[in-house]
Amino acid sequence: MRITQGTFSFLPDLTDAEIRAQVDYALAQGWAISVEYTDDPHPRNFYWEMWGNPMFDLRDGAGALMEIQACRKAHSKLYIRVNAFDSTRGFETTRLSFIVNRPADEPGFSLKRQEGPGRNVIYTIESYATVAPEGRRYES
Amino acid sequence: MGSPADRYKSGVMPYAKMGYWDADYSPKDTDVIALFRITPQDGVDPIEAAAAVAGESSTATWTVVWTDRLTACELYRAKAFRVDPVPGSPGQYFSYIAYDLDLFEEGSIANLTASIIGNVFGFKPLKALRLEDMRIPVAYLKTFQGPPTGIVVERERLDKFGRPLLGATTKPKLGLSSKNYGRVVYEALKGGLDFVKDDENINSQPFMHWRDRFLYCMEAVNKASAATGEVKGHYLNVTAGTMEDMYERAEFAKELGSVIIMIDLVIGYTAIQSMGKWARRNDMVLHLHRAGHGTYTRQKNHGVSFRVIAKWMRMAGVDHIHAGTVVGKLEGDPNVIKGIYSVCRDSFTKKNLEQGVFFDQDWASLRKMMPVASGGIHAGQMHQLITYLGEDVVLQFGGGTIGHPMGIQAGATANRVALEVMIKARNEGRDIWNEGPQILADAAKWCSPLKAALDTWKDVTFNYASTDTADFVPTATPS
């Protein structure tokens, strides 16, 4: 399967030039770029690991791309996303977030159903990858 | 006006003379200001008509009463303070009326509207009356909860940023059994939509009891979430005949883990506020379908404009509100829609007469409502939709998903690909208004569902004149 989190997951994987264009757009809006990675792509895993702090003072797209590439080099088999953060009052939140690296094989999620009262079902979504301990996922 | 003795002599006196007209009045920061379009009966002076509206929507009755003198009546009288002819519409006038804050109960849309749109709309000396806009003072806004979730928190909760959200309404809207209904939900969500929606009139009918629908829809939502790794939702419509029934349905939706529930505008202002509070207490996104609004918002000379309804709904506390598409099958002049979207999404809405916005409005940090564009839109219009409506909006393609020749999943995929490719192009600095069709055609080369969607609906447009348009047109200023 292909996890479709992020702004551009239905498109072919972005090239570095395409990533740069999105980064430049975000910087032009005054947003701060940050890079995050994870081996736990559960839809409600909000806290991916931070590849350093958000780069509030970096206004140069080339520099941001270098960070993305460095993160990719260190975590080539994991999910990596680029976020753009807007600190404007009334937003103070992420404005753009897209995946720039993903494992070659994405095993996806199991859906566990527990019978509840009446016809209720308690659902649990679990990534097949997270059955292995942290740091030992997506190793193949 | 003469002496108090003259003023309070029993009998009938023009409203303007009773103190409901004051050309020199300068509104306080804490006043509620209403802007009415009044069409007086033939022979009725517009200033007297405006004063009558002020009177009938505040303290007045048809005759002088001495009991006014037991009160600080000057304060409680609403004051019409400005009357302008409507450009290009002879016989109609814009009248500005100020109301003191003490006329209204805190945190109550019911109380606010009982004055502002109460008796006065049936008042005989007027042929017609329309509430065009209101300025709500910060002091009053702060007594309202506002949207339980708001755009920012909704996006964070759903983990979806940088693009409009995508939805669809299950069709046919009536008649499907729960199991078949859930099938449509699953296919659409798995194919790429973020939300599917109950329609306004899906409640609990003989063909589908509400509990059955909720159970099957949540199976669909969770299955689609596991298949895509995304948070998905279905607006479970909890509209019912009584508050007790609505609470019961909302509780069940919560028990099942739904991220969102839905209500219809026809349940009434107080019921909406109650559900807004329930949603805040229970971490639920609250979707409002504006069923019924067209009966009073659409005609320009009489009723309440939708921008006012949107303001009231932001105060009452809903997270989603249907607010027009511009290009779809339902009423929507581009400028008027822009004004309505501003009311939903701004932190501070600036006066903009061309968009029908008559006042600056500071929203006092009330959370933002996500506008929903729904009704007769399809993937081929993506560049127009993004240009007109921006990013913080739910685009709902019901027929445009479910009616896809290759199936529902393909329909959803076509919409999602069209959306992402257009956002990407916009961010890259391309002129999507002009290049949009080419951008879609290029994507259709590698996405066959998009190609099929474009081929099926390429010529579908709804080009009819709007009835609700702004009265002020842009004028060129000499440079």
Structure commentary:
Chain A is of the alpha+beta class. Chain A contains two helices and six strands. Helices cover 19% and strands 29% of the residues of chain A. In chain A, the strands form two sheets. A four-stranded antiparallel β-sheet of chain A has the order 2-1-3-4. In chain A, strands 5-6 form a two-stranded antiparallel ribbon. In chain A, helix 1 crosses helix 2. Chain B has 479 residues and is an alpha/beta fold. Chain B contains 19 helices and 15 strands. Chain B is elongated and about 80 Å long. The relative contact order of chain B is 0.11. At the A-B interface, helix 1, strand 4, strand 5 and strand 6 of A face helix 7, helix 9 and helix 17 of B.
Write the layout of secondary structure elements.
The complex is a heterodimer of chains A (140) and B (479).
Chain A: H1 16-28, E1 32-38, E2 49-50, H2 61-74, E3 79-86, E4 93-101, E5 109-115, E6 121-127
Antiparallel strand pairs in A: 1-2, 1-3, 3-4, 5-6
Helix pairs in contact in A: 1-2
Chain B: H1 4-7, H2 15-20, E1 32-40, H3 46-56, H4 73-76, E2 79-85, E3 93-99, H5 109-116, E4 126-135, H6 138-141, H7 150-158, E5 165-167, H8 178-191, E6 195-197, H9 210-228, E7 233-237, H10 243-255, E8 260-264, H11 269-281, E9 285-289, H12 294-297, E10 303-304, H13 306-316, E11 320-322, H14 334-345, E12 348-349, E13 361-362, E14 370-374, H15 382-389, E15 394-396, H16 399-402, H17 408-427, H18 432-446, H19 448-457
Parallel strand pairs in B: 4-10, 5-15, 6-7, 7-8, 8-9, 9-11, 11-14, 14-15
Antiparallel strand pairs in B: 1-3, 1-4, 2-3, 12-13
